[in-house]
Amino acid sequence: MNTRYRALSANLELDYVRDTFLGPVAHRAQCQVQVATMTLRGCPALRLHVSPPIPAKLDCAHSVAFTWEGRSYRGVVGDHSKCGDGGLNLILELR
Asked: The dihedral of CA 19, 92, 33, 11: what is its sign?
């Protein structure tokens, strides 16, 4: 895993989908997020650090989409972990 760039914290609108027994459920939330580009197994990826408060069920998200610095991003959540500051780290494999 190779992190290349860390942006300052930005207020982003995250669209995320989680899978349930009844099918996919879409959510949208405004969050304070730090975005870092990275390479994961030779492919482009992003690390998102979402600051508290964490939106409901974001830790169960299957995929996340958002617009950052005028560009749209969409990725599958490859990994997630809670942080000591109460935040959440998401690794997005970009599609």
From this structure: negative
Give the start-to-end residue ranges of the domains of the chain. 2-94
Name the token pair of 6. Answer: 């860390």
The structure tokens 């998200």 sit at 61
H/E run at residue 27: strand 23-40
Angle at 27 between CA 89 and CA 2, to 5 degrees: 25
Share of the chain above pLDDT 90, in %: 83
Q: Tokens 């914290």 belong to which residue?
A: 9
The model carries a pTM of 0.87
